[in-house]
Design a protein that fits this description.
This protein starts with a helix and ends with a helix. It is built from 24 helices and 41 strands. It is about 30% helix and about 20% strand. The longest helix is centred in the N-terminal third of the chain and has 20 residues, at about 110-130. It has 4 domains: about 1-230, DNA primase, PRIM domain (Alpha-Beta Complex), CATH 3.90.920; about 250-325, no CATH class; about 345-630, Rossmann fold; about 640-725. It has about 900 residues and is an alpha+beta fold. Strands 4, 6, 7, 8, 9 and 13 form a 6-stranded antiparallel β-sheet that branches. The chain has a 5-stranded antiparallel β-sheet with strand order 5-2-1-3-10, covered by helices on one side.
Amino acid sequence: MIGEALAALFCEGGVVEVRALADRFTHSGYFDDLAKCAEAAAALDADPEVRGIYVTLNEVKGALLARRANRVKMRLTRNDPTTSDTDILRRRWLPIDLDPVRPSGVSSTDAEHDAALRKADEIALWLSDRGFPAPIRADSGNGAHLLYRIDLPPDDGGLVKGVLTTLDALFSDEHVTVDTANSNPARIWKLYGTTSRKGDHTPERPHRRARILSAPETAETVSPDLLREIAALLPVEAPAPAKASSPFDLGRWLREHALAVRSTRPWQGGTLYVLEDCPFSGAHHDGAFAIQFSSGAVYAGCHHASCGGGVQRWPELRAMHEPKRQKRQEVSPPPPPPPPAAPAPAPAYRERAMEILQHGDPLRFLLDTFNREHVGDRTVAECLILSIASQAVENTNGLHVAISGNSGKGKTHACNVMLNLLPEIFRLKGTVSNKALYYHDSLRPGTVLLFDDVSLSDDLQEVLKSATTNFKEPIEHRTVTADRQLRVCAIPERCVWWLARVEDPGDDQVMNRMLTVWIDDSKEQDRAVLEHMKRAEATVPDPGESEAVQTARAIWEAVKEEVLPVRIPFARRIHFSAAQNRRNPGMLFDLIKCRARLFFLQRGCDEEGRVIASPDDFAAAVRLYGALNGTAGGQESKMTRNEAAALETIAAMGVSVFTVGQLQEALGISYQQAYRVLQGYVSRGTTYTGLLEKCPAVSVINTTVTEEGCECSVKRHELHFLFDRVRYREWAASPGVWLDDDPDDDSSFQQVFSTCRKKGTGQDGGGSERTEEYNDQGTYIGTSFQQEEGSQGATGDGEEAGVGGCGSRPAESGFSNRQNGDENPDTGENGAGSVFSACRKTPNVGMVLKERAGVLTLPGVLEHTEFSRVSTDLGRCTGCGEGRAVFRSADGRTRLCEGCYARLVRAWNEGRGIA
């Protein structure tokens, strides 16, 4: 059976890749001998660990045979490539995959399987009516396949994608869907004659063998013109919208006139409604649809040839249900000609956007376009970009952003500039009342909601909690109308929230759901903004939108056309040094998925159509995550920029006891401001916590102070604040994130991210950059310096977002692979310097953070059994740099005081579950 399937799909002598997917491994081989290919596939199929066996459908370059010539290599490593889109010479098949709707990772039931087969027959009949030849009809094991012979170049201009999108729009329902992810040239396809093993084999959901059901003796090739006819069946360009006093809501109109909707989905920036019954003909039920474009224009029709074959019939449909309106139009004078519709984005912008998504760096392009109008703040911009991208990721709860910073430093401007890069239908800004969002009829799914310096009432905070918790579902609100009728209002799904405030909203339940990032308020940023304003005032402003802005909007239109799931295949190898806040690891995973979604045209997809995240996405997410936990945000600590600066100042003062007045003098602010930073305050019923609540290194005691006068002494109460320097360094240490070595990889241990960076100036300002580099084995190989130019930083994709600058965390960040006991080449005088080490997860390997005052040993770095107590004078502790050392390591390099040794023993016990 396998040999017959290969003969039906491929010509003798051509090269085909066979790829087998198991739970933890991928096996692959290339064949130009179909008999050997069938033998190898049969051997793989006999392995119960193999979940599915696939082949490349399209014509592969002959040179790829040399990778694994007529053999299968088991357990591929990272160095073993498989077929990519650039390896395809010609498209030979149009693949139509009908997949039953069911939980992921399980086989289909008999009923689900039969539904897919029936849907395939329905599509084949419909295509036959339009001139398509007979296809190969096949059973995939869980669903159904249709294969039509084609002859197209790898870059077909989106023709295959357009055909699949049309079929998906017209035929997908709640039971069976057309998989639109099968449009890339290197897509792999189930090999007929092999077994599909998804999940366990049960009586209800059995494993089945894929097989060809029928095939023509000679496969006829479908002409490109016929493919274009199907791809263009649904309108791409919107008709001119009708002139109306208020926006028209097609969804509401369909509900009010009892026109049942089978399904809805995004379409060309608008919404496509597939109707349950055809309102134009009683001869059939399916096939009718209605579209509302982003401009508000409406298009309706039916794909059946007897109903016009998809021509515009919206006026006819509206007249059926609004006869009075039709009569008014007949007796009224003809209306004046409508004003010309806003021009649709030029095809050149769409082409440029697709070029960037397919071959360029869309994140860097969006950041650079943002910085044309807003100087610096690339960390803020990257958070906003990934927040928008989260709207197109299926398996996420969304990324929402809270931006804090002093008034007048550019929070509002940054958000507005980023909003301007979005298509207008996806923006909402300004003030709203507690329940106004529920009654906003034109609010669309995937809208960005900006709240600029708005005090969040209790009701609005509850709305925000619900919207961030139930990101993938509408948030419903039930109320009673004046005539005592129940009315259900809703905020649509997949909306993201941006908060721009001087301080945080004050509710930890809200902040825990958001990316907390600081605006750059450094003096360097102030100077850069001033220079930008001077240049802008000296030039003639362009009255229209720039080409970069139009391209950015086209990028978002392409990304938001479809909501796709993203899988992180290496997720189990990601480790965190601290995960007390359980939402933060989830946010890192979301950052990885959202970046992968932005680069979706450059990432592969698995058999379920899920975008596969790459280690590059992990490395970029870790950099951003580290910045949000250090110099550019308070993700873990929930501190604002002012609080972080206050803690840095207290640490620099070198005191263990201080007063409000001393902090006021050091910061150069008013007494009331310093008091608020420490104690917090209450405003309009909302409590804003201070450092006493947030930082465990700060405490307070009420003391009595005696002041001697000329003739008498006066006693008064005074608050003395205590500062524990050692505990502050422990608390302020940036949480480490690293990627463990792959236990299944034979290659040497490699880390994705192994570069220590330090900027000489602020978060986004200019200055020199020191880069300390390590090789894959963690060996120090040198330090380079680079002078940055301009205010935007030297990197456009966020590689250095957030490093350097001021804040409560050490400015240095990075990773290296160095095991305990290795000589540290970065150590300077008195132990100064900065090294983060992310290593294999073993008891005596971990993370070491060096600061100006000494070396802080974090839990899990050293083995306490390697130390011995000595009576000789060892000097100061190399752990805290303050206490008298009484313990020495076996190699003599590390000396610990009583307190540091006790913490080391406690950490060792906690790591093994010892109370």
